[in-house]
Structures are given as C-alpha cells and as structure tokens.
Amino acid sequence: MAVFELDWLGGAAERAFAPHRGDVDGLPWGTLDWRRFTPAELDQARMAWTTSAHQEWCAAAGFAALLTALLRAGAPVDLVGMAGRFVADEMVHTELNARMAAEVGGGVALQHDPTQLCPPIDPALSPLEAALELAVRVSCVGETFSLPVLAGTRNVATEPIVKAVMARIVADEGPHGRLGWLVLDWALPRLDARQRAWIGAVAADAVAALEPLWTEPAAPMPDATRHALGWMTPTEYRAVALDAVERRIRRPLEARGLCRSA
C-alpha cells in the first residue's frame, strides 16, 4: 500500500498537455468560502474530493488497459482512435478533483494499492474477451453510470466552482460511456453461446457492485451544505442512480440479450 499522491512536471509536458486541459485555470477557483462550514463538514469534503481524484486516476488506468486490450484484439482503427484520448481526459478530471480538495482545506492521506488500479483480468482470457470485459466494466457500467450522477451534482450545485468543475467533467463523460457500447456491438457477433453467457455474467456482476453507492447510509448534513460542497442529497442521489442503472445500463444490456431488467 502507498499514499495516493499527485505531482506536476511542468515545462514541455505541461505545454503539451495544455490544449487538452483547456481553460481549467480560468475556472472560479478561490470563490468558495470554506469558513461557512464546520470542521466535520470540511473533513468529509476533503475525503470526498480526494477519493474522487483517486477514482479518476483509476479510470485513467482502466482506459489505458482497455486501449491496450483493443489493440491486442485487433479492434477497428477508428474505435481504438476514439479511446486514445480518454486517459488524458481522466488526468484533467484528476486535477480538477484534487484542486477541489485544496479548495476545502487540502487532500487527505488516502492509502491505495498502485498495482490494483483497474479491474483485474484473467490472463486465460482471449484478447477479444479481455477487451470486452474491460469495456463492460469500465465503460458500459462505470462511465455510463457516472455521467448522470455527475450531471445531477452539477444541476444541484450552488457554488460556482463546484458547478464549473462538474460541468467540465460532464462534458467529457458522454464518449467515455459510449465507447463501451460500441466495443460491445463490435464484439458480440464474434462470440459463441458460452462467451455470451460469460459476458452477461460479467455485466450483471458489475451492475451489482454499484448497489452500495445508494444503499449505504450517508452522514447527516443539511441539504444546502451538501449542494454547496458538491453532493446531491441521499434522496436525489438514489433517484438518479436507480434511473441510471435501469434505463442507461440494464435496458441496453437486455436489448443485447445480456442482462434482465429489474
């Protein structure tokens, strides 16, 4: 285990990355008055934004693994090319979340295993199967779920910096989820009955893993404080999450013969 830490090189690397970052530095940083919140609320916000930065880092690792798997599987050139920019997107999102942690008092010492950043893939899988499992877990389920949840947070946010950060991330998320469905539609005609049953079970497992996100109790906090610090209320979150799972994930999987709707 190690402490999750971020670094910035600067110079040539920063200049090359700058066009992808866009106007990140122009967002309304420094406008959130942290003195309005209790120390406990700020601690929760510091943990939440640090955890979100780590999740975006892991998403970058997932897309890097998926990109390599697509290349090994001989995926179409344009499909691979579409996936090629997503690691950079996730690095921007990592930066945004880390800077939000700084806005509320600084990141926390989050322990993580740097060798376990993305879903482990059975080495016995064929290149096509490995690419398909990563596409389903990372994109069809993970990123497809994230988009409406992030949009929901953007919609209720009352602080300009929170709304701006969420809006920037949401603007990138659509293609991240769309990629998985394109991979799925490319791969499905190449699968036999056993493989179809297997990827259906993978999808069901990935969907089931989301459930704690809306069933675990949230710490008590005024609704206005949640919206200011970057969260929906538990009721708002549950409604958005359940709709995302049913309408955006289960139904498309069911339409492909892979997962029954609830």
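Above is the first protein from milestone M3; the second protein from the same milestone is given next.
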Amino acid sequence: MNSAIYKTLLRPLSWLPFRALYMMSDVTAFTLRHIIRYRRKVVKTNLGAAFKGMHKRDLHRIEKKFYRNFTDSFFETAKLLNISDDEMRSRVSFEGLDIIDRMLDSGRSVIVYFAHTFNWEWAPSVTLFARHRPDDKVEYGQVYRPLRSAGFDALMLELRSRFGSVSYPKEQVLRRLIEARDRGQLTVTGFMSDQHPGHGDPGHITNLLGIPTRMISGTETLARKLGTGVVYWDVVRMGRGRYKIITRLLAENAADTRPGELTEAYTRRLEHTILRDPALWLWTHKRWKNHI
C-alpha cells in the first residue's frame, strides 16, 4: 500500500478525542497480550532477565502496563495526523533545553542520545519549545532505519516531519551531517541507540540491567569525529498522553572524551530511566540476542 492509503485508514483515528483513543487502546492491549499474544514470550524473557528475583506478581504488573503503553503509543502516533501545535504544547514539556540552546549559541552542533521509551514519536515536537527554530541556520533531525513497507515508511517520515524536523537514513547520516557543517548549518540530531549494533559497528561491551550487553558505539564515534555536544533525553511519562523530556548533559565537546566514555554514560542514564519506570521501555525486541 502507498502512504495515501495508510493515511486514509489512520486519519479517522486522528479525529477522535484522546479519551476515545485510550478506550480503544485498552481493548487493543488486552487483545495483543491475551489473544494474539504478540511477542509475549520475548517480553517475559526480557523482563525475567532484567529483573532476576522480582516476584512474578510484580513482573506481571510491569508486563500489563507495558502492553498498555505500547498500544497507547500507536494511537498517540496516529494523532499526529491531526493534533494542533497548541495541544501538543499542552501534552509535552521539555526541561533543560537551555543546554542545547547554549551549545548552538556557541556554534556547536548537538547529538541527542534517545531510546525506545514511550512515546518517542512525540519527541520531534521539541521544535515547538526550542529557542532556535528550524531554519537555514539550525536543522533538527533524527536517524531512522527505513521500513520494509515503502508506503508505511513514507507515512512515518511525514509524521516525523510534522514539526519541522528531517529524517536521515542510518547509512547517510554521517554524510548529511558533514554536508550541513560544511554549509555552515548547525544540527540537533537524535539517535536511537538502545538497539543491538548493526553490521560494521563493533559495539561497546558493558552491563545493562546487570546483563552483559553490546551497545551501539557508532553514535559516539560520529559525535567524537564531528566534535559535537552530546545530551541524553530522559523521558518521564506523567500520564496517558502526557510526557516530560529532560535534557541531561553528557559532554560539552565529544572530541574531548575517551573512547567508550559517551556510550557508557548513555547506558547508565538509560538504565536509570528503565529502572524508574520499567514499562516505559520497548520490551518486544530481543534486547540481548547479541548477549555476550
């Protein structure tokens, strides 16, 4: 299907009030978890590995909350087709953006470490809050892996550009950021770095939630090569459809850091986010398939 068909199917959802969407989300979460059993074995395996010794009742509670967060994120993403800037401002808040603004003021681009914590698809709304708006001087973007369905991929790119940011295919990001630097344009670029490393990325071996883990190291390599500032976006879910994103400084200049330092700092920050609210992370991926 092309993107127009996907939009036609999803647009009616975007017209519904959030209360109706969350009622639909509750039904969908129950269906995925108990009837379809969507990746339930993977979720249970991941949670059991990450929280050894936790009572089954508590693991059950996290799993149930996770599936609701998971389906909430789908309906919240569909809402991007119709949500106004004012409503988005009322539902998302950013803290610490002065850190990014200060780096841009000094002429330094910024790399943002981010993770699959719900709802990451609302993070591009940062352009509604930042002092530096997207223009010919500053470009906001995020790195993505193209989806197998060309139509759905086109739709997601459109949604992610809803607030003026751009998307860089993973294979092109270094070239695109170098091109921006050469033409004198500063960039603020989000990297989802909590997945297993891809081909060509040796990874950084550390412990995440007590499990030996090979973390993506390509983000750090790129930041050190370009000498960018580096921050972490810490997501706090305040309620259904309510998020706070806190900017945490990792490095003023990545070129001054040691190999592995940024990836380690990101891992510790991510671990803190997960432990604070375990159901916020995307547990349906095989997190430790590259288990050391």
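Note on the second protein: The two ends are 40 Å apart (CA to CA).
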